[in-house]
Amino acid sequence: MFRNIILNISKNNNRYYCSSKINSGKAVDLKFITRSPTSNAVINSSNEIKNIVLLHGLFGSGNNWNKISKLLADKTNCKIFQVDQRNHGQSPHSDEFSYRSMSDDLDQFINKQSIEDLCIIGHSMGGRTAMLYSLLNPTKVKKLIVVDISPRQSTSHRHNLEFRNILLRMKSMDLSKTKKRTDANDWLLPVVEDNNVRSFLLTNLACDEDGNYFWRINIDALLENIDKIDSFPSDSEIKSIKNSTSPIEFTKDTLFIKGGLSNFIQNEDFPKMRQLFPNYELNVFEGFEHWLHSDDPLKFVEVSSDFINRE
Question: The AB hydrolase-1 domain covers which part of the protein (predicted)?
């Protein structure tokens, strides 16, 4: 599922860094990158969207969107925010890791940055964070794009086992004996055969100023809470969070983008998608798998910008 990840780091991005102290039971300040439209931007005065927040998936970071954000900023004339979710990238670590906590982080981030006229785009885990946030805060989001994930409440044992095995392999590596990145690559090889997948996972391996390697992601918290991430919150959970007995729904324009070869959105998910997002539409990228936005960023930007720019 991680094939063909594209990470293009631009020196023109504005970068903001946060501390990595452990926090429990409260929102954390997220690290983020901004991207503004260039002089080549398409000016569309009728576009009600002025800001776009991009949310990555499990094992990812805001940098995953670098190539896309540059194109998307110009195609929509919007300011882009590429966010590192908690326990990922350079955002703080926390022993609490759930869609509720990530939604709380996002709400704090949006409020602190005074972001309005917003479209959220989220891939996989980030898509579920975006869905929950939109359901809890429908007045703060004008449009929503969910990339290859559904609000399914049942877990996928195959994906769960795959993620857990990767995390356990990462945790078992003796970082004190790691002298170069190829050592880590060789260590992951027995459980991650695909070169592109290993390259993607190794973006989480960082080196401090003393030459000591460390994992950016919070492996222990991800292992402890992986079951929570593998399933979307139930209606009763969302109503409890919202403290409301009214039907839970986000009635504004929503686009689900599915990889034709991916099983992260299945036919049996459509009724739930319609219940929670009654004005959703579906675009299927035939021949593509879970990482469709990395496999064809130009097509992804075209489809996303058309949806965002539409009146």
Answer: 51-297
Could you give the count of Cα atoms lying within 13 Å of 291 in the half-sphere of its Cβ?
19
How far is the C-alpha of 33 from the C-alpha of 62, rounded, in Å? 7
Angle of helix 99-112 versus helix 125-136 axis, rounded to 10:
70
Beta pairing, strands 79-83 & 51-55: parallel
Q: Which of 220, 235, 253, 296 is catalytic?
A: 220
Catalytic-role residue among 290, 294, 304, 305 = 290
Q: Which of 61, 94, 124, 304 is catalytic?
A: 124
Using N-to-C axis directions, what is the helix angle for 125-136 and 235-242, rounded to 10°?
50
Low-confidence residues in the chain, pLDDT < 70: 1-24, 45-46, 155-156
Count of CA atoms in the C-beta half-sphere (13 A) of 241: 19
Known catalytic residue: 220?
yes
- Beta-carbon neighbour count of residue 26 at 10 Å? 11
Q: Identify residue 191 by its one-letter amino acid code.
A: V
pLDDT in tens, 4-33: 333 333 333 443 333 345 555 799 999 999
Residues 209 and 187: their CA atoms lie apart, in Å, by: 23
Specify which residues 34 forms β-bridges with: 14, 81
Residue 87 is predicted with a pLDDT of 98
Check residue 238 and give its pLDDT.
96
Distance, CA of 84 to chain centre: 8
Helix (H, G, I), strand (E, B) or coil at 77: coil
Whether residue 290 lies in the annotated active site: yes
Q: Which domains does the chain have, with CATH numbers?
A: 14-155+233-309 (3.40.50.1820), 158-222 (no CATH)
Mean of all residue pLDDT scores within the chain = 90
Reference 165, options 126, 98, 219; nearest CA is: 219
